[in-house]
């Protein structure tokens, strides 16, 4: 879904702009490659597995390894497998020496994040997690004012993010039992609070409900909530679900309210003050900021994709291009040390693994709390959650 709707249109646009070269797509099934060729007719890309060599209906979960082996030296990898399947691809990509962008959450367990931190630091590899809400101006606005003291000290906040039931029932039918609405979408607002405030989670308690999905053959959570206390004693309540009505006015209900000692922030991130009513789709809230197609100023009939979904990926591509440029032509050792230096400078500014650790720590903590009858969970000095 994210590859089809955001990543590939972004890459094809970047290629039209002359910023990247060849594109290859690795999936498991040749059918996916054929489907993408149909959707993106006219766009050139190499497909793994090759539908000419592996017949439709078959699956090759290791096809990405062949793609990695054949990737050019300055090739960049974007990992968009289901959440629980990021880790093998990320570690293999580091071992192959390629920089990468990974869809959020980086992975599901803090010990996996530490594995990634260690391996990527040793090899001087850039690993950006695509937390695209960091690029939403509605989030950047509150970070800007909070960091300048206009909200004072944080007291508490409430984030909500809820999707339509088609997500676990259709789109992720094959992996919804391995995930949850907290891991899949709630983590966005955990990372947003960390991005805005720089605070770290101290303890949490979480809840989950299984009422609707079990009646539809899925042993998965309908909804999950967490109350998270942060290092300054402020509290964020995060409410998530993925069983909203099919008739909801957008795929995602979402928003954030924050109260500080000197001011408050209130934002509906679904209703951006713009809606359509059409015969085809009925009433729709329309978020013009995420990732939308617009008429290009460059030519009649051409389309330009704009938004924070786009900017987030392009930030990773631009960082990687800059790292490749400053190390080109250097000796192996010289390039390694220059890469390490360039990545260390970005550590405080980007969702590199040391920052992505926070989102993963909270989702691992939420799962631990829910599995233990909603007990409180705290974190050790490596952010590993443990029962209080
Ligand atoms: N940044 C965002 O806002 C955003 C939005 C949606 C999803 N996501 C994240 O993106 C990732 C993918 O989500 P999605 O919604 O596209 O899921 P999806 O199920 O639609 O797509 C995942 C794809 O990975 C493929 N895959 C599985 N194992 C593979 C392997 N070994 N090699 C190659 N391909 C493999 C599957 O066949 C499938 O095509 C998840 O981590 C999700 O949380 C991010």
Task: Note the topology.
Blueprint lengths: L1 H15 L7 E3 L3 H10 L6 E3 L14 H8 L6 E3 L6 H10 L4 E4 L6 H14 L3 E4 L6 H11 L6 E11 L1 H6 L9 H17 L3 E9 L13 E8 L4 E10 L7 E9 L3 E5 L6 E4 L3 E4 L6 E4 L7 E4 L1 H20 L4 H15 L6 H19 L5 E3 L5 E3 L1
Parallel strand pairs: 1-2, 3-4, 4-5, 6-9
Antiparallel strand pairs: 6-10, 7-8, 7-16, 8-9, 10-11, 12-13, 14-15, 16-17
This protein binds nicotinamide-adenine-dinucleotide.
What does this structure look like?
The chain is α/β, with parallel strands linked by helices. A hairpin with a 3-residue loop joins strand 12 and strand 13. The two termini are 38 Å apart. Bound molecules: nicotinamide-adenine-dinucleotide. Nicotinamide-adenine-dinucleotide (NAD) binds next to helix 1.
Provide a brief overview of the structure.
It is built from eleven helices and 17 strands. It is an alpha/beta fold and 388 residues long.
Amino-to-carboxy terminus distance: 38 Å
Nearest-angstrom radius of gyration? 21 Å
Q: Share of helix among residues?
A: 25-40%
pLDDT below 50 for ≥5 consecutive residues: which ranges? none
The share of residues in extended strands comes to 15-25%
Total number of helices: 11
Summarize the biggest pleated sheet: 8 strands, mixed
Sheet with most strands: strand arrangement: 11-10-6-9-8-7-16-17
Structural class: alpha/beta
Element string (H = helix, E = strand): HEHEHEHEHEHEHHEEEEEEEEEHHHEE
**Which distinct ligands sit in these coordinates?**
nicotinamide-adenine-dinucleotide
Give the CA-based shape: globular
- Care to count the β-strands? 17
Mean pLDDT: 97
């Amino acid at each position: 879904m994210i590859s089809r709707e955001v990543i590939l249109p972004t890459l094809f646009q970047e290629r039209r702009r002359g910023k990247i070269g060849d594109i290859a797509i690795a999936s498991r099934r040749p059918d996916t490659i054929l489907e993408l060729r149909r959707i993106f007719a006219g766009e050139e890309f190499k497909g793994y597995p090759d539908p000419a060599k592996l017949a439709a209906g078959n699956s090759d979960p290791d096809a990405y390894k062949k793609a990695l082996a054949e990737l050019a030296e300055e090739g960049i990898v974007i990992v968009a497998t289901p959440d629980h399947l990021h880790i093998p691809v990320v570690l293999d990509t580091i071992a192959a020496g390629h920089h990468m962008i990974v869809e959020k959450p980086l992975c599901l367990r803090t010990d996996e994040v530490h594995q990634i931190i260690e391996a990527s630091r040793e090899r001087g590899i850039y690993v950006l997690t695509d937390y695209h809400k960091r690029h939403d101006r509605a989030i950047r606005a509150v970070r800007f004012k909070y960091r300048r003291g206009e909200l004072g000290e944080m007291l508490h906040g409430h984030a909500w993010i809820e999707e339509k039931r088609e997500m676990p029932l259709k789109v992720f039918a094959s992996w919804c039992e391995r995930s949850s609405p907290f891991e899949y979408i709630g983590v966005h607002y955990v990372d947003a609070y960390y991005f805005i405030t720089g605070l770290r989670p101290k303890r949490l308690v979480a809840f989950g409900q299984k009422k609707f999905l079990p009646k539809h053959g899925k042993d998965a959570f309908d909804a999950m909530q967490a109350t998270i206390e942060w290092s300054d004693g402020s509290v964020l309540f995060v409410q998530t679900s993925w069983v909203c009505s099919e008739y909801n006015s957008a795929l995602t209900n979402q928003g954030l309210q924050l109260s500080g000692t000197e001011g408050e922030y209130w934002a509906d991130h679904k209703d951006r003050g713009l809606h359509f009513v059409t015969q085809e789709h009925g009433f729709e809230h329309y978020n013009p900021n995420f990732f939308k197609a617009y008429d290009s100023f460059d030519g009649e009939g051409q389309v330009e994709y704009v938004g924070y979904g786009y900017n987030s990926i392009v930030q990773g591509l631009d960082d990687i291009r800059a790292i490749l440029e400053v190390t080109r032509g250097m000796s192996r050792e010289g390039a390694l040390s220059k890469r390490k230096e360039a990545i260390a400078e970005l550590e405080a500014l980007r969702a590199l693994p040391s920052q992505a650790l926070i989102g993963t720590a909270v989702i691992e903590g939420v799962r631990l709390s829910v599995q233990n009858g909603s007990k409180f969970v705290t974190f050790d000095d490596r952010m590993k959650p443990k029962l209080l």
